[in-house]
Amino acid sequence: MSKLPNADFLHRLADIADAETMPRYRTELAVDTKFNEGDTFDPVTEADREAEIAIRAAIEAEYPDHAILGEELGQTGNGYFRWVLDPVDGTRPFICGLPVWGTLIGLTVDGRAEMGMMSQPFIGERFWADIEGAWYERAGKRQPLSTRNVGALSEAILHTTSPEDYHGDLKQGFDRLAASVRMTRYGGECYALAMLAAGRIDLAVEPSLQPYDIVALIPIIEKAGGVVTRLDGERAEEGGSVLVSATPTLHYEALRLLNGCA
Q1: Of 90, 151, 170, 206, which sits with the fewest C-beta atoms within 10 Å of its C-beta?
Q2: Are 145 and 220 in contact (CB under 8 A)?
Q3: Is 89 labelled a binding residue?
Q4: 17 and 114 co-located in one domain
Q5: How far is CA 182 from its chain centroid?
Q6: Is 102 helix (H, G, I), strand (E, B) or coil?
């Protein structure tokens, strides 16, 4: 069985991805669309594809016995260790030139997310979790990540990427939660979840995530003191409707509102 990689390897993978995404950012890229049921436009670019190819090659060279799941190329291999990749999480803001996208690189061990990296190379920021904790770095300065405890739900800041994905009971639940918090903001993609780990946002709801959207972020948030589950309270490594909270108390209160509990 392979040993757990160290943080240096996460940074090496992020460097490899950055070398593919940054030369293509804010350029005239061809934008294709993937045809997924229910989606009218699901963009993909050369940056998405080439970054994933490059990350995969580095993992396969170093850890040939590890499985890899990526948004663009699917799953290869099986085993105790599985890398979960989203080369450009937030392709829509990427093609709009908005720097709230990021490269997500996660590692699960026996199905549980244990390490993760979110790289935002345009701003020059990295958020990651290793065996020692959760960390933030910019301009060579590194510091530990920590969620904040605002206490009451009425003082919390809530985020979701887009209100258009809410329907039926889930919309009613989100409306109840939004009415109970101090402020609700939209459009931050993976960067908003990194800001939750950094103590700037307190709650985030995402109605329909894939594993590659969340695995890298789970250990970053959990090791910063936060909580990540599906709306049914189970772990979120396989995606679904997901709630992220800065504290266990906020998480409990938000789940009750989202699920319509009295």
Answers
A1: 151
A2: yes
A3: yes
A4: yes
A5: 24
A6: strand
- Give the pLDDT mean for 129-149: 97
Structure confidence at residue 42 (pLDDT) = 75
81: containing domain: 7-144
According to the annotation, is 213 in a ligand binding site? yes
Annotated binding residue 137: no
Q: Which residues contact 137 (CB under 8 A, 6 or more apart)?
A: 125, 126, 143
Question: What are the structure tokens assigned to 26, written together?
Answer: 């804010």
Domain of residue 80, CATH code = 3.30.540.10
In a domain, 2, yes or no: no
What is the structure's pLDDT at 3?
Answer: 79
Query: From CA 214, how far away is CA 228, in angstroms rounded?
Result: 9
> How many independent structural domains does the chain possess?
2
Q: Are residue 93 and residue 67 in the same domain, yes or no?
A: yes
Which H or E run contains 223? helix 217-223
**Mean pLDDT for the chain overall:** 95
Closest of 124, 94, 118 to residue 106, by C-alpha:
118
Please state whether the predicted TM-score (pTM) of the whole model is above 0.90.
yes
Read off the DSSP letter of residue 3.
Answer: P
CB atoms within 10 A of CB 179: 9
Alpha helix segments (H runs only) across 30-188: 46-62, 91-96, 168-180
Q: Are strands 43-45 and 157-160 parallel, antiparallel or unpaired?
A: unpaired
| CB-facing half-sphere around the CA of 236: CA atoms within 13 A | 30
Q: Can you tell me which residue has the tokens 């933030």?
A: 136
